[in-house]
Amino acid sequence: MQMTRFKPLFNLVAINKELIRTVAVSSTAVKPDANLKSWREIPGPSSLPVIGQMLHFMPGGSLEGIEGVDGTMKLFDLYGPIVRFDSMLGKEPMVLLKDPESCEYILRSENWMPIRPGFMSLKYYRTEYKRSKGHTVHATGLVTDQGDVWKEFRSTVNPVMLQPKTIKLYATVLDEVAQDMIKRMKANRDEKNMITKDFDKEMNLWALESIGTVALGCRLNCFDPKLPADSPEWQLIQCVHDLFVIANELDFKPSFWRWFATPTFKKAMKLYEHHEDLTKHFIKKGKEQLKNKSDQEKGVLGKLLEINEEVAHIMASDMLFAGVDTAANTVTATLYLLAKNPDKQAKLREEIMSKSEKRPYLRACVKESLRVMPVVSGNIRKTTKEFDILGYKIPKDMQVVFAHRDMSLLEENFPRAREYIPERWITTKDDPLYYGNANPFAHQPFGFGVRSCIGRRIAELEMDTFIARLIENFQVEWFGPPPTIHQASLNYIKGPYNFIFKDVK
């Protein structure tokens, strides 16, 4: 989910704002001082050989229980806007950053092929593990490739994934999916207008049908009421969820798998293999239906097959991996926030019922939910050069984590930061709430630059379409305490899901 560009400088006010921001970056992030401190002097938990700072996170440690969604905010409260983490059990050292000007400086200064680490277990599966099984591997995909291999892959898929005119071709079929899901939700409500059984899986089912339709160019028929519990569709939903959870243990926490095959590592390899087998099943299904499709009706798979078969298969697989839990949790967050803010919901419904082609408030509602309850907490880079940040020298090849969720919830960046105010995205520039008053690098739900999320436009269309149909048909309410958020590779919204879906009269 990631792509930001310089905004056009239409007037003197905007020019001044950009100049001020540039000066701020130069003054706060870049310290051309011979007395710069080493990155090892950055504040952070004390460290021991081999195990690093793990002792602090163990039972009885000073940071026990800090791994929740607000954990990084607590770290910043303790140590300041930049926090050091040493190498732990083979996991590389990293720097956690909460200063938007410093984030901007690094992201804008990186070379033209920045390195975005993450999901090393997936990369291992698609390279070492598959080679051990006799497979030849060229590319592993946008999530895990770097350098020239990544550049060639991205250049191949960009025209299919990012052109607005191409994305618009999916609008009709995504609306059909949304309307079919509304029918399913109405049928699944109980006498209290609640969906009490597996609401999260229902949202995942919608997300899979939506992204599958775009990726493969055919309906997966996920909404079949007779769909068996062990069907490939349900298996894929569970497999994707399990992979994100297990990847959090292997890729984002210290782990012995870098030295030997732990039980968790072996389980991950089996899950990746299972996911690949499932996607092959759906790709075969998509290929069979391609024979009767026109060029306009073809999904991403069909379009890419005409260019590069290997790229087509990897891209379709990655869409079925990255596009399910992310979209489902973002929609759930948006529904919760609209339910808790009935005035915003009424305003959105009025816009939708007007049948206007342009729906800026709808887009603003989703943007605001991504700010208040983002599905991803931040972004990461491995520096390709040396940086001088906040008085410290950050060396080349250092992993830097940009804590966008935390920055998005700070009053200094967004006034009334904890409140759900979609208007901040569409109000005038003289309004104190106007989003443009914040440094744009305080909020980056889709990442930045060439490594931004390639599925952004598709995800936005998919979510906007479904939310519009939901609010058109239901008055959404919520009772009881707020949902809990479980932080793994993604921020998962956990039940009980106390939604009430009343018919709009």
From TrEMBL:
Q: Which InterPro entries match?
A: CYP11_CYP27_families, Cyt_P450, Cyt_P450_CS, Cyt_P450_E_grp-I, Cyt_P450_sf
Task: List required co-factors.
Answer: heme
Annotated GO molecular function terms are: heme binding; iron ion binding; monooxygenase activity; oxidoreductase activity, acting on paired donors, with incorporation or reduction of molecular oxygen
Q: Which UniProt keywords apply?
A: Heme, Iron, Metal-binding, Monooxygenase, Oxidoreductase
Enumerate the residues binding heme: C453
Q: Which family does it belong to?
A: Belongs to the cytochrome P450 family.
Name of this protein: Cytochrome P450
